[in-house]
Every structure is written in structure tokens, then in C-alpha cells.
Write a structure and sequence with these properties.
This protein has about 260 residues and is an alpha/beta fold. About 35% of the residues lie in helices and about 25% in strands. The chain has 9 helices and 10 strands. The protein has helices spanning about 55-65, 85-95, 110-120, 125-140, 155-170, 185-200, 215-220, 235-240, 245-259, and strands at about 20-30, 30-40, 45-50, 70-75, 80, 95-100, 175-180, 205-210, 220-225, 230-235. The strands form 2 sheets. The chain has a 6-stranded mixed β-sheet with strand order 6-7-8-3-9-10, sandwiched between helices. The longest helix is centred in the last third of the chain and has 16 residues, at about 185-200. It starts with 18 loop residues before the first strand and ends with a helix.
Length: about 260
């Protein structure tokens, strides 16, 4: 919420938040993108960020793992405050998986090697253990038969599922998804959302930026509507998507219904 707002929404999750953001201010030059945003994400919770383009959704996501440096406020992940020093950032990022709009796979490496590399380099896992972990995850996302394929031989949906498996290979405590289906052809969106719904059902902590309202209704514990440099409204999917209380929420949903 912005600094002059107090959230009355109860997540139903107890204990210290896994992700805690307080008073977040983020600027690009003189442009303020986030102005005093507060947000908690608890373990096992699925939070979906929605809102108009330019509302700061992706920026907020990138702030969580230090890809964007905030101007003021505090961010804590698993109780540790984010500090912009390389060693500390790498430590915090080891607890966070992130899936981007573009798949960011290494094109010169086979799928199995894409999944093994960070396990070997960052977690120092033995080669055989890393391979077994990678194979299990490829099976989990329905791509066990693509281990030896190169990314260019895969569809966009398959590449995004590989990207999800690669993030999971690092055993993250929270998964961040930045519009993971926006670069996909419409017929491929469902296969990626199905993997994400399964993760949600299994209790993975997730923060998802998406325009897929059906996913938000099906998988989210909480929907957060961002607008005007902050959080305009938050609540259950039913509250925010069907009965918004804010003028900004009603306007956004009206715009969606016209598309």
C-alpha cells in the first residue's frame, strides 16, 4: 500500500512474511514508478499483480531480487534485508526463482545443460546429482523427452516450461513470474499456466505479474491491483476481480471487458 494507506486485508497466513516490502520508492531518473509501496507475501501464498501497463508491476517484481535498486524503503526476504552488494545479492537471489517474459535460455546449450549449469556453479552440486534433479524437473513440466534438445527446436511454450524447471532446480523459497505468457502464441499459453497452477496447488510461494485473469481467479490467494505508482486495491480474487471497491479497480476491469 502507499504510505498513507493501511491494508485491512488478511492473508490467512501466519508468521513472518517470506517477502516484506515497506515504503518502497523506485524512480527512473525523475520519474517516480513506485511511491511508498508496502507488500507482504507469506509462505505458501500466491499473489497475483495486475493493473494497467506502466503501473510498476514488473518493476516491483524486479525490486524483490535486486534487479532494480530502490531509492528508499526496505525489502526483506526470509528475514534478511536486501543490501546492494554483490555477495549479499547473490545469497538472496539463491532463495528466489525468477521467470521472465523472454525465456533467457542459453541457445548453445542443450535443455539438460541449461538446467544443470547454475546447480553446478552456484550450489556446487555434483554432476550426477544435478542431472538427476534436472531430469526430475523436466518430467514434472512434461518435457522429459526434450533433455537433449536445443532451445531453438522447442516451441515458445516448451521453452518457458524449461525456464520454469531451470528456476525450480535451484530449490527457491519463492518464485517470481514476470508476465510469463505474454510472449507466447495464444494456443501455447495454457500449457505454461497449467504448470504454474500445479506449482500453486503444491504450495509454492509465488508472485505473478500477469494479464491472465482466469489464472488469477483460479490460482491466486490474493490479487493486488497496482495503479498510480502504488497499490490501488487488494483482496481475494472474488473481491478485486468481481466486486472492486476502488474507482481505479472498477475502471481497470471495465477496460478489460472492452478488450
Amino acid at each position: 500500500m502507499t504510505t498513507d494507506q493501511t491494508s485491512s486485508f488478511s492473508t490467512g497466513h501466519e508468521g513472518e512474511p517470506l517477502v516484506e516490502m515497506r515504503g518502497i520508492v523506485k524512480k527512473f531518473g525523475d520519474t517516480v514508478v513506485l511511491d511508498g509501496v508496502d507488500l507482504d507475501v507469506h509462505r505458501g501464498e500466491v499473489v497475483v499483480l495486475i493493473g494497467p501497463s506502466g503501473a510498476g508491476k514488473s518493476t516491483l517484481l524486479r525490486c524483490i531480487n535486486g534487479l532494480e535498486q530502490i531509492q528508499s524503503g526496505t525489502i526483506r526476504v526470509a528475514g534478511e534485508e536486501l543490501v546492494y552488494k554483490e555477495k549479499h545479492l547473490n545469497h538472496v537471489r539463491s532463495r528466489i526463482g525468477m521467470v521472465f517474459q523472454s525465456f533467457n535460455l542459453f541457445p548453445h546449450m542443450k535443455v539438460i545443460d541449461n538446467l544443470m549449469m547454475a546447480q553446478r556453479d552456484v550450489l556446487d552440486r555434483p554432476k550426477q546429482e544435478a542431472r538427476e534433479r534436472a531430469e526430475r524437473l523436466l518430467e514434472r513440466v512434461g518435457l522429459a523427452d526434450k533433455a537433449d534438445a536445443y532451445p531453438e527446436k522447442l516451441s515458445g511454450g516448451q521453452q518457458q516450461r524449461v525456464a520454469i524447471a531451470r528456476a525450480l532446480a535451484m530449490d527457491p523459497e519463492v518464485m517470481l513470474f514476470d508476465e510469463p505468457t505474454s510472449a507466447l502464441d495464444p494456443e501455447l499459453v495454457g500449457e505454461v499456466l497449467q504448470v504454474m497452477r500445479t506449482l500453486a496447488d503444491e504450495g509454492m510461494t509465488m508472485v505473478v505479474v500477469t494479464h491472465e485473469m482466469r489464472f488469477a481467479k483460479r490460482a491466486a490467494d490474493r490479487v493486488v491491483l497496482m495503479a498510480d505508482r502504488g497499490i490501488a486495491e487488494e483482496g481475494t480474487p472474488e473481491q478485486v476481480l468481481e466486486n472492486p471497491t476502488s474507482e481505479r479497480g472498477r475502471a481497470f476491469l471495465a477496460e478489460l471487458s472492452e478488450e
